[in-house]
Design goal:
protein transport, rod-shaped, 65% helix, single chain, coiled coil, RAB3A interacting protein like 1, 376 residues, guanyl-nucleotide exchange factor activity, mainly alpha
């Protein structure tokens, strides 16, 4: 705009007359005055022309200055704008990095939370399965303990040295009483005939009562053991029983198998079952070692073996004779009773428990000597 106005101004100034004539205000009186007036008019025209040129030059210089200042101002504004744009770009870049970092952290946190949640679920399922398994085992143990307590009550309460249970221990009664009780239990209508036959064929035996006296040494050893029951053989009470009863009762001809039987009895892992109820007829050991229905594996003698034993979970069965079964059963009964005492299941005074232990020791001694019930 400044260049266009300046050019237009210059063109307008060129079109104007170079010299202007001034009309006199007053009429001149003579011809001499007219030349002076003309000179004055020429001088005034030169002055006005020079003034106009100066004005034009001033305008030109001012427009140049304005143009330079305007360009400088625009350059400064442009520089500021570019600087601000650079700052904005840096800020946008920084914010983009922050956003990417936050997104990455959020993804990692989400992944870790899912992993932790899955881990907790797995642990909870594992603990639940273990708890259910422990609960089932606990219920099984409770049922087993209840059955053992019931059997113990039947054994201890209904069968004491002073009043034994003849049905649980038929070997303690005389033959005449045994026959009478068996006949009476099977058929009440024929009991009189059985009694008559027994009275005719058997002479009445004199009724005798056992006399008992406590051995002070044995009773003191039992009392000492009863204060802190243990299955350790180092105590004097069990050491004596091992030497006098358990060891001789489990001392069979086959020494190696006898030792295995003793260990299984001590660990409560020996199983006795009738031969007729066997499910697995396959025998994993040799016939010579395991015996057979007509040969005892412990004594090596030809005997009718109605039972067989298994040591632990080995799956190996050994056929045993009735005499060997009576010896093993007597030792098992003794260990079962002292385990009940150790577990606190026997609620009796010291003296009845002592006599029950003596009775079990007598059964071991009788079995060792070859005495056993006919039901074996």
């Amino acid at each position: 705009m400044s260049l266009f106005s300046q050019t237009h101004f210059e063109e307008g100034s060129q079109e104007q007359p170079a010299v202007g004539y001034w009309k006199p205000l007053m009429p001149s009186k003579g011809s001499k005055e007219e030349p002076e007036t003309g000179c004055q008019d020429a001088g005034s025209g030169d002055d006005s022309q020079s003034t106009e040129q100066r004005n034009v030059s001033r305008l030109r210089s001012s427009s140049v200055e304005i143009r330079e200042k305007g360009s400088e101002f625009l350059k400064e504004e442009l520089h500021k704008a570019q600087k601000e744009l650079k700052l904005k770009d840096k800020e946008c870049e920084r914010l983009s990095k922050v956003r990417e970092q936050l997104e990455q952290e959020l993804e990692e946190l989400t992944a870790s939370l899912f992993e932790e949640a899955h881990k907790m679920v797995r642990e909870a399922n594992t603990k639940q399965a273990a708890s259910e398994k422990q609960l089932k085992e606990a219920w099984g143990k409770i049922d087993m303990l209840q059955a053992e307590v019931t059997a113990l009550k039947t054994l201890v309460i209904t069968s004491t040295p002073s009043s034994p249970n003849w049905e649980l221990h038929p070997q303690l009664q005389s033959p005449s009483k045994a026959v009478f009780r068996k006949g009476h239990g099977r058929n009440k209508s024929t009991s009189s005939a059985i009694v008559t036959a027994v009275s005719q064929n058997a002479t009445p035996a004199p009724v005798s009562r056992e006399c008992k006296e406590i051995d002070s040494i044995l009773f003191a050893e039992f009392q000492s053991w009863k204060e802190s029951p243990t299955l350790d053989k180092s105590c004097s009470f069990l050491d004596r029983i091992y030497r006098e009863d358990v060891g001789p009762c489990l001392d069979f001809t086959k020494q190696e198998l006898s030792e295995l039987v003793r260990v299984a009895v001590e660990q409560n892992t020996l199983t006795i079952e009738p031969v007729a109820s066997q499910i697995l007829p396959v025998v994993k050991v040799s016939a010579e070692d395991s015996g057979g229905p007509k040969k005892c594996a412990l004594s090596g003698l030809p005997r009718a073996c109605k039972h067989r034993i298994m040591l632990g979970d080995s799956g190996n069965y050994y056929y045993i004779s009735p005499s060997c079964r009576a010896r093993i059963t007597a030792v098992c009964n003794f260990f079962t009773y002292i385990r009940y005492i150790q577990q606190g299941l026997v609620r009796q005074d010291v003296e009845p428990m002592y006599w029950e232990v003596m009775r079990l020791r007598r059964e071991m001694s009788l079995a060792k000597l070859g005495f056993y019930p006919s039901e074996m």
